[in-house]
What does this fold into?
Amino acid sequence: MSRAPRFIPRGVIPTSEQQAIQCSQHRISLIEANAGAAKTTTLALRIGEALARGLAPQQILGLVFTPEALAVLQQRLIDLGVSPFVVRKLALHTIEGFSRQTLAFWEESAPPSLATLHELKPIAIESLERLSLLYADTEHELDFRTHHVALSQFFQSQLRLKASLGLQSQEDESITEKALIAGVTLTDFLWTQQYEQLRQSPYEGVLFRGPFDGTYDLACALQESPDLLQLLPDYRLVVVDELHDANEASFQILRALLSKDKTYLVAAGDKDQVIYKQLAADASYLHERFAAYFTHLQTYPLSYTYRHGPYLAYAVAAFKKKKVDSALALGTQIHVHQYQESETELAMQPVLNAILLWQKQGGRLDQCAVLLRDEHQSIHLENSFLKAGIAYQLHGFTGYLQRDEILFLRGLMALALNGLSHIGSMEIRKKIVHALALFSEIHLADSLLQEAASEIAEFPQLLSTFYQGQIQRTGSAQGRWRISEALHFLEQVDENTRAAEVLTQLCEQLDMLNVAKRIYVFDHQATVIQKSIAGFIQVAADLQLSLRDFYTWCAQTDEAGAQAAQALVVCTVAQAKGKEYEHVLMPLLEQGEFPSAKNSGQIEHNLFYVGITRTQKRLSLFVPQDSHKVSDYLAELQLEQVKAPALERLQQLQQQPYLVKPVPANAGSFVAPQRASVAYASSSASQNSYADGRIDLRVPFADKDQAKSLGARWDPVKKTWYVPADLDESAFKRWRG
It folds into this structure.
């Protein structure tokens, strides 16, 4: 039998699901939540309940995975009525922040923190040099390149190895087996081992920490020396948000914390939001991994969403075959639009039309987001926005004209047309030099390349000297021949020839797909590069420009996408996780694009789920006219089947005199219901009265004894006096706010 709650939140009446979690007495409570189901609010309720029952703030540990989630948790506690003074006393951290703080307590001094790849690059190169010397005569086929793509892939692999604790695999496994199990290349596995030997000296200890190294180091320390746990504060309650982002390193930290008998855990996650496979996130950390070590587990649902209305909620329920309902009286719209072809701007015209309609109807542009499956899909979208004068901002990636593969082609055109000086930006000139070096596969020390790029950016006429002196001197024999033949072809072509025709032949001569496969370790990345180039050529075809004019158009367009304060958001679905917008648009929902041909399966399914659940008011989906090409995900939404029950549910919600919802995750952009008759009990409506009849008071210190004698009670969490519902409030009028 559950206890009655003692913590009465401000502005919110918890649902029965939330109240069960708030008052849970089980040692491990795992919350299976849906998107937009107020996970953070519910965890804040649980913290408030613990405080109301006398637990000291210092005995409560709140863990999240990102700084943004930490800020939301802190604000949510204050929104619900926990005193800011008490919130500051709570141990609220990101997993990484908590790990580093704990390690600093154990270690004599905190090692330097190197946060950027620029800072870490020299160490990575030194560790690769050590590896090349160590395995110079081995039978293993290793790749010792140090260009920025290889370094980027190394750091990704390193993060995965550490997150999965893959370096601590069983001793009876071969090195090749360890790398295969961890999902990284043999080179990156051995490279990481050398890197860690540089980072952790057997004599001086840890010399520095990079991104997420704190979590890795703490997990390893707790495994090797469990007694260290006794030096930690005595946490009685551990609360974890976004558990679906957990990996083996973070799980081992939680497991160690729970080794203390009096420690309780309340953790919330959504198994359908597990998308970070590259960081070893897995749905097993939502239940199975805990069940392997602990016997007394209790799972709780959070099935109601407070982000969007019943129509989308029921479609999501059909898509994921789980219970999803909405407690929000909002008629969230779902529009399905058709496009003609995916290889031209015609595919993006319906997207542009939907955005213009949104603006015409009064919608804010910065509350509108286009979510893509892959970066290459932005090419025709960006062109459409540039032509229409739509201000947009790219989150998480650069514009297509400044991607390596496109800069490489522009660099070859610059050489053939002697036109690098036409590019106004010094930074883009530098990037073109780096792209030429990357795709030419030349062997040049990073310092020398940086120096050359800076000099050429200042004196563009030196680009041909760089080609003759470096690309043709230090590249591989095959690479030198290939680039030479391609450039000779470009120089012989009449510059008035259509650019699309020239670029098509140029890429065939360069064999760009196989070059990309050599440079990019992961096949999917190489495929994306190929699609990006195909889109670039299609742009040239759509514009019907000559080679010279198309080159000039690219240079002029570089600066055209300047960011505006109120701009449309364009990002990938993965980058939108944890965010919400009033209007979400998802283009190119066709087989091979979404789901991706290279990554079909559960992750693709989860990515689509994450995408459609980012919206509040309107979801616009774009599918090809050819029904055979339409993504299977559209049929799985069962939009026609759920329409009637969704409308019935919406009408039911609209007829309720009071509909109370938890504080929205993005309160500043929350859209009020379309029916004005629906009232919300919120902090903006009344700061000192509650749906249960309780009334907060403003009692000066000198009057506290008098108020107490009349029956007022003290709330230790909110640090305020209040009148219980069963007392006559008239005796307390002088202290009413």
In short: Residues 657 and 677 are 7 Å apart (CA to CA). The two ends are 37 Å apart (CA to CA). The longest strand covers residues 615-624.
